[in-house]
Protein 1
Amino acid sequence: MARPSRVRRSIACCLLAAAALTGAARADQPQWGYQGRHGAQAWGDLAPGFATCKTGRHQAPIDIRDADTTKAALPEIRFGYMPARGRMVNNGHTIQVNMPPAGGIGLADGEYQLTQYHFHAPSEERINGRRYAMGVHLVHRDAQGKLAVVAVLMRLGKENQALKPLFARLPARPGDKVTLPLLNPIAMLPPDRGYYRFTGSLTTPPCSEEVSWQVLKQPVEISAAQLHAFRRLYPMNARPIQPRNGRTIESD
Ligand SMILES: [Zn+2]
């Protein structure tokens, strides 16, 4: 098993590689997807670097069952996002917004900068077995390369004003990019910031572990038209639920 510092370095390296990715696939990156022979069940066998997808014991996403959570005095997540012009890219697996330095979050173990956020349809996390129409993952990194993700669940309802500037110009083809107007990611969060916390992994290859997950309990809403706009590009980009393997899920 790799030492934590090595794992962190490899996560940082893979994220940099992902940020440099301009199209659906790079010559040195094995093809992967959500269905068929490159689907989630096969990820661990597609490349030696993806082995954690099948051997990892702390994988994500998980189904968060209230009955299995541990009440904890979780500190509030200190959101310190600032308005910034993100770069929205269709990376062949999702729509992702790469962020310039524009603040981040404070957790019990330190400060994390927001590096990117991206979407899944349906949501990857489930709460008491319930899956939501969509979810957004806000990915943060600390000075040592450790990752912390904030997940926001989205259910069908009224039009989401915060997502309007994005969903009006979703880049249609893998590799397409759009520079967004000045936006503050705080607008995507629900008013109630209560959350579940657990240790998991990236939900895409290479499925690296030691990722700190914060799943906000209160969902936000998106309209059917917004969901449709995303699903026209990505009808299904959610990894299946992974075993909990005795992990503690904290709840505030
Ligand atoms: Zn994600």
Protein 2
Amino acid sequence: MKILIIYAHPEPQSMNGALLSIAMETLTAVGHEVKISDLYAMQFNPVSDRSNFTTVNDPLFFKQQQEEAYASQTEGFANFIEQEQQKVEWCDLMIWQFPLWWFSVPAILKGWVDRVFAMGRFYKNGHIYENGIFQGKKALLSLTTGGPEANYISERYGDLDVILHSLQRGILEFTGFSVLRPHVIYGTEKQSAAELTLRIEEWKNRLLNVFEEDPIAVGNYQG
Ligand SMILES: Cc1cc2nc3c(=O)[nH]c(=O)nc-3n(C[C@H](O)[C@H](O)[C@H](O)COP(=O)(O)OP(=O)(O)OC[C@H]3O[C@@H](n4cnc5c(N)ncnc54)[C@H](O)[C@@H]3O)c2cc1C
């Protein structure tokens, strides 16, 4: 199968870097094709503006979705956006590997979505959710947190399924992806090296059977 990993961490020696490495190793060893977008290494610019496009629909007023729809009809995406779009279109499974930052993805990853997930190309009228363009593809969030699992309750930080809703429901399911259970390593910095080695092993084992998994219903996810 074809797997795209979007990796958003600035430090290759980080725990996220270790999770990326084991994922690449494990998935390729069992015969999958893997492509990576290492956003920091690519120095991906998260600022979305006219530089997303080689075409101009309205030179007087920049309305991003209108320019996206126009670029979708006229092959008008800048090359670096087009390449990312083609990777998403290519994959059967897309994994995002990231540390939870301010209850969300790092800005570089949010900016990647803002620029790459274009109207007309990745979604359009009548083509969202169950009619989404990426029906048949799967997506999986793999993330680490600083906060311990015990804090992710409604009385404290809030449930993680609520925190991840904007990503899983607002981006992934919106464009038609089926979402697999998120893979979460809580309290990363508080775990010993031995515990983290186990966490890496658990991720490896999950990936070995990832294509056997059923998607979750994001709205009803119980953890
Ligand atoms: C801007 C910002 C916002 C944040 N917001 C939140 C938030 O909203 N909620 C929250 O819970 N947290 C938050 N955090 C904390 C953040 O989520 C954690 O710092 C992050 O998830 C830890 O992952 P890491 O890859 O950076 O870990 P690292 O610091 O790289 O690693 C943790 C430990 O893993 C060890 N390690 C690395 N590789 C291996 C290996 N191969 N084998 C064994 N051990 C290894 C390292 O030596 C280190 O001791 C925030 C942090 C920042 C900077």
